[in-house]
Amino acid sequence: MKGKLPVFKIKLGTREYVIDNEKEMVIDDARLDKELVNQPTKYAWLAVLYGLAESNLEAIEEEEKQLYAVLSSRLRIGSGKAMTETSIKNHVMICDEYREMAEKRLIAKKYVNILHRIVRAWEQRMQAIMALNANQRQERSQFV
Description:
This protein is mainly alpha-helical. It has four helices and two strands. The protein is 76% helix and 8% strand. Strands 1-2 form a two-stranded antiparallel ribbon. β1 and β2 form a beta hairpin.
């Protein structure tokens, strides 16, 4: 994959978003003015997507806590004998329903991490565009 940036598919709720880094991250130095104008809009879209991913992760984590509480309550009531917290935790962790929720959380966390890095890359992209633009202005002023 050397030299090629990945395309990310991020699923939040029922929607799937595609981020084509190869296409989006390229800076057209011949049209820096356009790059400067378009950067904030693209950055804002990714920042909003990142915020949605964080909210989605928080909702899944809350759902996971609630599921844990329900499953551990069922175990306490249904066992008929005293159980240690470790024993309850171990039983809950192997429950299919809980493992599915934990997998859902891990995927959501992966999306948050990916989007966080993409947003940071866009911040660096803006700095690069500004530096290139300043260099071009300086070069033009030398020839005038």
